[in-house]
Amino acid sequence: MNQLVQSIIQPFTEAQMKSVALVPGGYKPPTSGHFYLVNEMAKRSEIDEVIVLIGHKVRDGITAEQSLAIWEIYKKHLPSNVTIQIAEANSPILDIHKIIGDNPQNFYFPVVGIRSEEDAKDIKRFDSLGKKYTNFKTIVLPGNPDVSGTKARQALTAGNYEAFTHYLPDMLSDAEKQQVIDILKPQATLNENNPVDEQRQLLLGYIQSLNEYMIGEGMNVQPLPRIEYRDWE
Q1: Fewest 10 Å CB contacts: which of 2, 93, 174, 232?
Q2: Cβ pair 99, 126 in contact under 8 A
Q3: pLDDT at residue 66 above 60?
């Protein structure tokens, strides 16, 4: 097929592709900023589906399962085309590589929220995708620099639940905000009395960061090795 014919039919071919926004993150916990990103993409007429991918890394005792439970509360206020799931791989970025590679019939939009120059490095995580696939385009959306998971965790750890609720979506009812607090409150200090679990999560976090770096640099590290953590007496 010559280039002229390809350029003519390409818009029609792309129009038949399913458009999926992929929003990866740690979400420990999901904040109003995260909710905004997902809601913004879900409302776009050109987007058929939004998939939120939650990372496994535990932060200050908050787990992926707790994050998922909170997202299920948020989902009541999101459009019906939003799917929330915990990443299958150690990192949601690895899931994105697999999803795009395994589904050439769809077009994907990895979404990055930028609050400051520090967040700009997150865009580079998708650079290696351009060397392998053409069925994607990264979307960058501005974020609120005053809202972050770190600040939310700090308020939670300090027991300042009123301040913590300021990092939750405004449309949540008081009862729903309390549900979020109840999900997080029992586990907020889990690792303080469990140094072995803390060391395990720290090690897995380092491995996850290394995997993301190598993939971002285009290194061929897939399939990833199986990781097994053993406690030695």
Answers
A1: 232
A2: no
A3: yes
